[in-house]
Every structure is written in structure tokens, then in C-alpha cells.
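sanity check both lines:
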Amino acid sequence: TRTATTLTGDVDVTINVAVRDVDRLENTPGIVVLKQKGLREIYLNLDSREDSPLFPGVKNPMSDPKVREAMYLSIDEDAIIKSVMNGAAYTMNSIIPENYVGYQPVERPAYDPERAKQLLAEAGYPDGFEVTLDAPNDRYVKDAEIAQAVTGYLEKIGIKVNLNLMPKSNFFSYIKPAENNSMLLMTGWSDSSGDGTSLLHDMLYTFDREAGLGTVNRGHYSNAEVDKLIDQAYEEIDETKRGEIVAKADQIAREDFAYIPLHFEQDTYAIKDTLNYTPRPNNYVFAWEFSYK
């Protein structure tokens, strides 16, 4: 409907253009499509507790970093961006966005299903294991399709996946860390602070409900060194030094495969070519920032 009203000229501005309609709008006279790398990151949380209550009586396979690495290497994110997202996404290698305090260029490990199978065998799971992947089907761009693609990639290396899709009205209460429902989940997060400290605090700090720590650490990742570095970052006033601390904490978590990054969503706008507008990095839209040419 939004695309149709844009094409007919009934509206001046459309935000969050459907990825399937971008090419059509770009080729329509009188319409300009604006694109930029967004701050919303789509990623996987993995339950990394060895004694997870979600694996009663047995060791949680995902508590082994080799298993988590195998799952990471099994997912062809470039193919997901090209085929599922129609190119409207950007590879995510770290939870710290560009230009944030603590950002450092990171090269994403290459898609390597054979290496993934080898790692599973080394970890003692040559025939894989079974997990449930929880994901929303109406919250993020192409979320259900992304989850289906991830399921397919994991199953190619021998991990049996029960895909549990649900509407956002149920999803976010279901995946709360305190509920202990999710062993593997796909979700999103964004932060407009410009500082990686808050991202680490929310996503990687050891979960403590009473203290308000690790509030979206839904995989219950816990690393005392990472926690200590996050504490240090909050106390460091010098931005350069704080950035170094944040980068070190994120590096430890990445090398531990605390999470599996997928991509940053693309912010996509369609406007009439009679307008001037520069999108904000945080995707907020203010009417007074538009002007006529």
C-alpha cells in the first residue's frame, strides 16, 4: 500500500520501503530513493551455558566455542543479503557500528560449511544435535525468510533445527533472559548513543535481572573479563581510552563467538524529487528537516 501511494503521488515521503519494491521505485520518474546503512543489527543469540536448563541432563552443545564457531561458519550471510534482502542490508561483523566509540574494522570469517562440519566433529558432535530457533515473523525486514535461510544452512552441517516463528506480540516476552525459553534465537537491536559501551552493557554483560545488567543478553553469555572491561569503560571519561576498552571487550566476545552477527538493516526512503531531505543515522524523521527545492 505504501509503495502504491508513493507511485501515484498521494504521499510525499515513504519510510522503510519494502525491499522488493526498491528497484521499481528507483526506476520511476519523479521519485528519489535514499539509502543508508542503518543502526539496527540482526543477529543470533546462542545459549552458551554448559548447564543450561534447556538441555536437561546433558551438556549444552553450544557451550563449546567450537560449536558456536561452526554455526557461524555455516551461514552464508552474503547470500542472505543478496537473495533474501534484495541487497538492502550490510554485512555485520561486530555489534559495534561504524563511527561508534569502540568501533574497529573487523573481517567476517568466510562461509565455510566443510570447516563447520570439522569443528562439530572435533567438539564431539559429528552427527550434529537438535535445537529450536525462535524468531519473529512480523518485526524486522524479511525476518521469517531470514530465519528460514539460517535454518537451512544449519541443517546442511547436520544440526536439526525446529523453527519456531511467532508474532512480535508474543516474541519479545517469550525470549526474555529470565524466562529461560530460548536456546537459540534471531532478533534485532539498535542503539543511537554513538558509544559501544551501552551496546556491550545490554548485549554481553552477564545477565542480572535485579541489577539491570545484560538486559538483552538472551543467550546468557558470561565472561568475567568482558564484564570487567565494560565496568572500566563506564568509568573512563577519555573517549579514546574508552574506545580501546570497548574494542578489547568486543574482540574477546567475538573470538568467543558469543553471538552470530548477520547484518545491519538498510534505512530506505522514497521521496518526491521536488524535496530536499538528508536522513538521520538513527532513523528518526522530523518534518522540519524537509524542504522544497
